[in-house]
Predict the 3D structure of the following.
Amino acid sequence: MDLILPDFGLLFWTALVFVLLLFVITKFIWKPILSMVNEREQKIAESLELAERTKEEMKSLQAENENILKQARAERDGMLKDAREVAAKMVEDAKTGAKTESEKILAAARQSIESEKAAAVAELKTQVASFALEIAEKVIRGELSSDDKQKMLAEKLAGDINMN
């Protein structure tokens, strides 16, 4: 029954030790513990605030990165469009140049053909005239082979000369 109903002395000394312990704890230990808890609470609050600021900075950096990526894509698309236009222009210029060159070659070939044709016609005329002279010479020699025929021809020519 001593445990259920303690003595007055035990209660007194227990209370006195409790009050002394409470006084020592409040006087020497409680303030440093509270200051450490307050410092820790302040560091945690600062860390949370820093984390929140960092999170906001990350969001702004991410938005900035997205804008930079959009600009880069737009520049890339513009460069590709310009490259396609330049390539199309180069192909068109090459086609035009080839067409012009082929027309020049065709004109030169036509001119060459015409000049060769004219040369061939001139040569043909020369040969035909040469053949005609040879044939006429042979015909005249055949007709003038006898003296009588020569005299008749000379008289006829002399008569034509006198009439003119």
Q: What stands out?
A: Helices lie at 8-143, 147-163.
